[in-house]
């Protein structure tokens, strides 16, 4: 029976692939600047500098759009935790270290642009936003105990980057503001390139250590949670985002899990041992269950939205 590769062996064997994909990423990625995506002419001073403080009536975003923007921004804000996690699981040396630094620098732009937009346009309460940022970053983000090592981390960030891309794009749509939509489309493009980088590394890992890699993929898929889990008001805001299609089970299954697994040819590979086959079967069983859960969820959501629409119509008719 083949012996599993150690973390050091995996990192060493995958490093040339990391280097190749850094070169590819730098060739494709476009430089952009957060200040170009912010409508500065809408800005004005707050009371501390002789202006007026924030009032809810100043916001032109819907409640769902505000919640989605705040959730996405606070998620991006926790970059120090993410940097620590990937640095611990990858390396700060060689090609791995180069990628950790480049990825961190690119991700930081996202929070800069989103915060400047929200504050300048007075779309959300800046005091509440800052208080939530302090709470969220103080707590930090900690990977589940069962996630450990380069394969688990590469698998997780592949799915997470794509999930974040979807969330940014749908948030841009509900903002009903072409400036916000353009900004979030730019951020989503970054997330997509990051996903491709990690997806390529995981693809190489499949060829290097197929059993270990399918086990990592299965573990991550079954235990996946968005990185914003645990932020202030996470449960309430998450429910609203799911309810209004910012990021829901259908998107998770059809736009994130299935496309990535298809690229990796997970269910077509023939290089697994019995151990890997068992893990692949476990993954297939989970996806089948998730597919059934999606249908039930959508039926329940449709009924809920129909009841809310009927209630709103009834209230409207009562005041006519």
List the helices and strands and how they pair.
Elements: H1 7-28, H2 63-77, H3 79-89, H4 94-120, H5 126-139, H6 150-175, H7 178-208, H8 210-222, H9 234-243, H10 249-263, H11 274-319
Helix pairs in contact: 1-4, 1-7, 2-4, 2-6, 2-9, 3-4, 4-7, 6-7, 6-8, 6-10, 7-8, 8-11
Give a description of the structure.
With 320 residues, this protein is mostly helical. Helices cover 72% and strands 0% of the residues. It contains eleven helices and no strands. It has helices at residues 7-28, 63-77, 79-89, 94-120, 126-139, 150-175, 178-208, 210-222, 234-243, 249-263, 274-319. Helix 2 runs antiparallel to helix 4 (94-120), helix 2 crosses helix 9 and helix 4 runs antiparallel to helix 7 (178-208). The protein is globular. The chain starts with 6 loop residues before the first helix and ends with a helix.
Overall mean confidence score, pLDDT: 92
Major sheet: none
Distance between the termini: 77 Å
Query: What is the rounded Rg?
Result: 22 Å
β-sheet strand percentage: under 5%
Number of strands: 0
How many helices in DSSP terms?
11
Percent helix: over 70%
Assign the structural class, choosing from mainly alpha, mainly beta, alpha/beta, alpha+beta, or little secondary structure.
mainly alpha
Listing every helix as H and every strand as E from the N terminus to the C terminus, the arrangement reads HHHHHHHHHHH
Q: Uncertain spans, ≥5 residues at pLDDT below 50? A: none
Quick one: overall form? globular
């Amino acid at each position: 029976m083949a012996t599993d590769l150690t973390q050091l062996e995996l990192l060493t064997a995958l490093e040339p692939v990391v280097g190749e994909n850094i070169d590819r990423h730098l060739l494709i990625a476009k430089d952009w600047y957060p200040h170009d995506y912010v409508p500065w002419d809408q800005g004005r001073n707050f009371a501390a500098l002789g202006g007026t403080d924030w009032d809810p009536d100043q916001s032109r975003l819907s409640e769902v759009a505000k919640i989605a923007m705040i959730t996405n921004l606070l998620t991006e804000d926790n970059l120090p935790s993410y940097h620590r996690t990937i640095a611990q699981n990858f390396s700060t040396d060689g090609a791995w270290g180069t990628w950790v630094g480049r990825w961190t620098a690119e991700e930081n732009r996202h929070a800069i642009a989103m915060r400047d937009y929200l504050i300048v346009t007075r779309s959300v309460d800046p005091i509440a936003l800052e208080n939530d940022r302090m709470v969220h970053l103080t707590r930090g983000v900690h990977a589940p105990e069962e996630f450990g090592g380069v394969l688990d981390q590469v698998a997780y960030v592949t799915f997470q980057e794509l999930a974040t891309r979807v969330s940014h794009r749908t948030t841009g749509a509900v903002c009903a503001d072409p400036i916000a939509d353009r900004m979030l489309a730019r951020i989503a493009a970054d997330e997509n390139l990051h996903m491709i980088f990690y997806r390529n590394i995981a693809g190489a890992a499949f060829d290097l250590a197929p059993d270990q890699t399918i086990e990592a993929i299965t573990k991550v898929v079954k235990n996946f949670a968005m990185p914003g889990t645990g932020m202030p008001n996470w449960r309430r805001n998450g429910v609203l985002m799911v309810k209004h299609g910012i990021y829901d089970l259908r998107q998770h299954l059809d736009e994130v899990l299935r496309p990535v697994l298809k690229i990796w040819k997970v269910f077509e590979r023939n290089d697994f041992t019995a151990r890997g086959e068992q893990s692949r079967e476990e993954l297939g069983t989970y996806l089948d269950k998730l597919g059934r859960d999606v249908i039930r969820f959508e039926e329940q959501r449709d009924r809920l939205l129909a009841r809310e629409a009927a209630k709103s119509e009834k209230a409207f008719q009562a005041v006519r």
